[in-house]
Amino acid sequence: MTYAGVQMFMEKLKQLIDCNDYLFGFNPKTSLESSKIKKMMTYEGVETFMEKSWHHDPSLFIDEHQDLHELEKVNHLKERFIFAAQEAEYIVDLFVSAVQIGKNDDAKRSFKCVVDLVLSCAHIRNNGHFPTSRDFKRSLNLDAVRKSLKSVKEEFMGMRTEETLDQSPAARISFVRNSPGSKKIQDEIIIVGIEEDAKLIKDKLMEDQKKLDVVSIVGMGGIGKTTLATKVFNDSYVKYHFHVRVWVTVSQTYDKRHVLIQILESIRGQLNLKDASDSRLREFVHKQLTGKRYLIVIDDIWHIETWDNLKLFFPHGNNGSRILLTSRITEVAEHATTYGLIHHLGCLNKERSWELLCRKVFYGDECPEWSIKHGMQIVENCQGLPLALVVIAGVLAKEAWSEKLWVEIADKAGSYIAGLENGSIMESLALSYNHLPLHLRECFLYLGGFPEDYKFQVKRLIWLWIAEGFIQEDGNRSLEDVAEGYLMDLIDRNLVIITDRRPFNGGAKYCILHDLVRELCLSKAKEDGLILQIGRLEASSQFSDVITPSYKPIRMFIDKDPNIMGFSYPSAQNLRSILCFDDFGSLSDDMAEYFRSFVLLRVLKLHKCSLKNFPTDMGLLVHLRYLAVRISSKDFSPLICNLRNLQTLIYITEEPWKIRLPRNISDLVNLRHLISSKGTFLLLINKPLKNLQTISKVELECGTTWQIPCIKELSCQIFLDDPYSYRYLGKLSYLEKLKLTGSVRAFKSTGHDGSDEQRNHIAFPESLKTLTLAKCFLSWSVMSNIHLLPNLQVLKLHYKAFEGSCWNTHEQVFRHLKFLRFELLNINTWEAYSSSFPCLRRLEISNCSRLEEIPYEIGEIPTLELIKIENCKPSVGESVRRIQDDQHDFGNYDLTIDISENT
């Protein structure tokens, strides 16, 4: 338990103050006023200690002038406090589980096993033997915990550490939230000093050499190999030269099947390859690449054997195809590169290092004169390593104009980076970690549990952070907004890397950790018992080998299927989270019974493990907040409604069937996000779900919208013969993102019975920012309403969204639209003025086989950055090239085009 965990415990204490007294172990005969006073004393004691010790944490800024003995005493008291709070939380949660489950008649058979678990966790741990029934009340008595907390508080106050703690010269550093660049979106990765390297590699990749050739970039960790490869990979000339470009990350643990799937999905998009054999996948890859000039980037390859296996995938056509490797190992590059170039990437010189530091700290603003002296000292200590410079810049950027901070970092940077000669920059990363505010630390360490080179979706990460209890209320901001702010803070500090941005606003969509940053996260998290990460190398280990009486982690991240059947509750009693990332196949019915061992779980991520039905024992997990499962059944068990604390429910299925949710799903009053992959939820609820913010996907019937009044994101299927459903959409005053798909079957079965006219009066709420339409058969006249939406930024029109061969926007102005996409739209003509889309940044048109050309006036939109065309008539591509050529003649070189035509 760290700061975030203690905060969660504080919230729980606050909620329990007015709860039944037996939860606190007080005698029911004691007066209500007396027991309430005791509980208030517990809460106030915890609160006082937290304010005095955590909010002025001296361990972040210890120097030779401070009293190490005093610091050790404070830290020891904090350890005692954390242990007491953790014990109290476990006892309360276990008993709450038993009480809630006992109220459910269907689950009373399981009550005894939960009570046994309560006793074992709360009693055996302290007394070393199985308790009798007389021990039950004593085992759950938090009065002893209250006394422990009081003792810690009194000892702490007796130390009179307030004066010492307040003297920390840099104490304010960890709480600074703003920086010169914190509100600016970086349009591209800040890259300095590698322009010549990039040109050399591009020239080698595109030279007139027909044979398949390999180019390698070699250098130590953190030197910028991946950054250089990314710059080359995304170069516009490289994009134009190669028909196919694929990026594959290999890392230390090579998985052939995973690499094959990466290649295929890069070429063809998301595919269902679960049942394909490795040989079949290899055949698919070979077929997709044959006859095309391709560029394959193989990032972070470690072993010669890995290359010998990989090279068999790639056809040797004499068409100028290339493979670009990055590696820390020179021998690997020498083995792979027969005719091509081995480029050894060196460190930055002082001038380039200073340029990088300034740009990352001040984001293009002029640096103050006094910063040069201290900055050059930092530059010298970083020895030209980009990653070291970047992470230290992340520390400085939080208080860029504070000379005191620059002096402190300059003085300490040398000792932190002393290990650079041995190729290690962990010390420099630790410097950045030590300056993290307390509210960010557990969020950051949590990322270390994800597999190496894992791209995590920002939205799902935020939901996980909230479920774990890392995010606290902050005024009127939603938990999701607070969490997004935390992530952006980590990005501003250069600890998290954005890999994919949202096309319309540049916001983060997917992120990743540098492998060295991940090592730091994992190391720190393991020290504190926060994470057990089971990777591919430990897949054969028994849990008894890694979970011991002295090491009981509270979160388990599984990257490879271990012997989970041997994982029983004595070793699982502390677990709060289980996250699985590999495809473990189907879990047996016997395995389902093991969920009773994890009664304290808050997070269960099993979306790659198949279950036939919702396991009965999963209904015992009453503390669960995040559940991701893959279930074969169309019906959800009513036991899901036992999970009253559930915030996020993700249901994965391979079939596009309708999923029947129990009618009392509205009992899940804390539910915020309801997600399905291919299936469609039948949402028939009897009372409003007031906290529900996201639904994907749901079948919307008359009146349903009244039951989801605060929905922000909605992906729904609508019956085209039911005019009331789509008219009710306008009532959703908080709705920001809508994906609306019409039911073609309903439309065909009813025929044109007058519902067409009603449908064309569809109402959209003014709060909408993103609108996606498909199979709605709307008239283009509906656009006269859509263009008036004051907040609309993204518009996507898919198959049969509208009927009619011509879209005329001459009298329509989409004032704030930034992103416009057509896909499979049956229009021949599009007429538009540049004034119709004054803020448009990105235009995408895909598979519109009847469209003749893009309106010439589109090129005159001053904000337009990209036109992307996929699989349209050649005349469409020609019109786009003409637009770009004319814009070049006018001096506008900001417009980029990306044309991919049928081959």
UniProtKB/TrEMBL annotation:
Molecular functions per Gene Ontology: ADP binding; ATP binding
Keywords for this protein: ATP-binding, Cytoplasm, Hypersensitive response, Leucine-rich repeat, Nucleotide-binding, Plant defense, Repeat
Subcellular location field: Cytoplasm
Record has Cell membrane as a keyword: no
Residue ranges annotated for the NB-ARC domain, each copy included: 196-364
Example of a GO biological process term: plant-type hypersensitive response
Major location (coarse): cytoplasm
Domain Disease resistance R13L4/SHOC-2-like LRR: 575-870
InterPro entries recorded: Apaf_helical, Disease_R_plants, LRR_dom_sf, LRR_R13L4/SHOC2-like, NB-ARC, P-loop_NTPase, WH-like_DNA-bd_sf, WHD_DRP
Boundaries of every Disease resistance protein winged helix domain copy: 450-520
Purpose: Confers resistance to late blight (Phytophthora infestans) races carrying the avirulence gene Avr1. Resistance proteins guard the plant against pathogens that contain an appropriate avirulence protein via an indirect interaction with this avirulence protein. That triggers a defense system including the hypersensitive response, which restricts the pathogen growth.
Family membership: Belongs to the disease resistance NB-LRR family.
Protein name in the entry: Uncharacterized protein
Organism annotation: Mikania micrantha (bitter vine)
